[in-house]
Structure formats: structure tokens, C-alpha cells
Design goal:
The chain is mainly α. The protein folds into two domains: 43 residues; 86 residues, Arc Repressor Mutant, subunit A. Helix content is 65%, strand content 7%. Strands 1-3-2 form a three-stranded antiparallel β-sheet. A hairpin with a 7-residue loop joins β2 and β3. α1 packs antiparallel against α2, α2 packs across α6 and α4 crosses α5. The longest helix has 27 residues. The chain is elongated, with a radius of gyration of 21 Å.
């Protein structure tokens, strides 16, 4: 069965994805005011495309993007660069099982260690190793300029963007 656009039409990518999505909804459901869906779809596609743009850097450095996220949370905690596994799970919206698997792999790779908690015998702390600290700094030193270059067109609008984002996040927090 052929689609209304025709089976030979290419699948849209990037900005065209959002345009096609909104166009298709306008055809199928012209009664809907899709401006909010357009905003949501744009945010999702932007995040997807930026993540794809970072992948070559992660690949070159031999690290996964999700692992860098763990390293970044530990690095930003300040010396001694540690957090509990539970804190990391919450920060990254991961189940404890998923976090454990990630930490196991990263510990094997030498990026972090798990050590007893200083004041709670039942708990552990996850701490960056010197290799983990070096890797974190190498990655951030590469991705910050890359993101700065990619996002340069909106640099002068960051205050508006942050204000808008904060308003939406506060509204979401009130509904959950």
C-alpha cells in the first residue's frame, strides 16, 4: 500500500523531519493547533542531531556518550570527584540496575572505582580515577568548542532560551 507522499519519497532528516511531521498532522488532523507539538518535535530533533554530532568525538576518544555523562557528573562534583550510585541514577534518570551495569563496565575500563562510603557502612561512593579525570577533561575540551560552533547562531538569544526553558520546567514541575 502506498503512502500519500508516495513510497519513493525519501525519509526526511534534520529540520525537514519536524516540517514533515507538522505537515502530515495538518493533513490528517487539520482541526488541531499543533504549535506546541512543533515545539516538542523541534526540541527532540535538536537533541537527537546534537547527540549525533558528538558521537565522532566519543568514538575518537574511545568512550560512550552515556559513560561521559557519568564522568561529567563525577567531575562536576568537585574533589574528590565522587557521588553515590543512587545520586548518579537519579541525576541520569536511570534505574539502579542500568547504573550498576554502566558502573561495572566503567570500573573495568579504569575510569572509576567504587569505595566504601565514609560515614555509611551500607553505601558505596563512586570516584573518578586519574584516568577518568583525564578522559573527562579531554572530552569536555573537545565537545564545548564543537557545541559552541554548532550553536553559534543562537548565542545572542541564550537569555530568552533559558527563560523560556525555566518557565516550561517550572510548569512541568507543578503538574507532576
Amino acid at each position: 500500500m502506498a503512502s500519500r507522499r508516495g513510497d519513493a519519497d525519501p525519509v526526511p532528516t534534520g529540520a525537514d523531519t519536524v516540517t514533515a511531521l507538522i505537515r502530515d498532522w495538518a493533513v490528517e488532523r487539520p482541526d488541531l493547533d499543533t504549535w506546541a507539538y512543533r515545539f516538542f518535535a523541534s526540541a527532540v530533533e535538536l537533541e537527537r542531531q546534537l547527540s549525533l554530532a558528538l558521537e565522532p568525538t566519543f568514538d575518537e576518544l574511545g568512550i560512550r556518550g552515556g559513560d561521559y555523562e557519568v564522568l561529567g557528573h563525577l567531575r562536576r562534583a568537585g574533589k574528590p570527584y565522587e557521588r553515590t550510585p543512587t545520586d548518579l541514577s537519579r541525576l541520569m534518570f536511570l534505574t539502579t540496575g542500568a547504573m550498576t551495569r554502566r558502573l561495572d563496565r566503567m570500573e573495568r575500563d579504569g575510569y572509576l572505582i567504587r569505595a566504601p562510603h565514609g560515614s555509611d557502612r551500607r553505601s558505596l561512593m563512586v570516584r573518578l580515577t586519574p584516568l577518568g579525570l583525564t578522559m573527562t577533561d579531554q572530552v569536555v575540551e573537545r565537545i564545548v568548542p564543537l557545541l559552541s560552533d554548532l550553536l553559534e547562531p543562537v548565542r545572542g538569544r541564550m537569555d530568552d532560551f533559558e527563560t523560556t526553558t525555566r518557565m516550561i520546567l517550572e510548569r512541568l514541575a507543578r503538574t507532576t
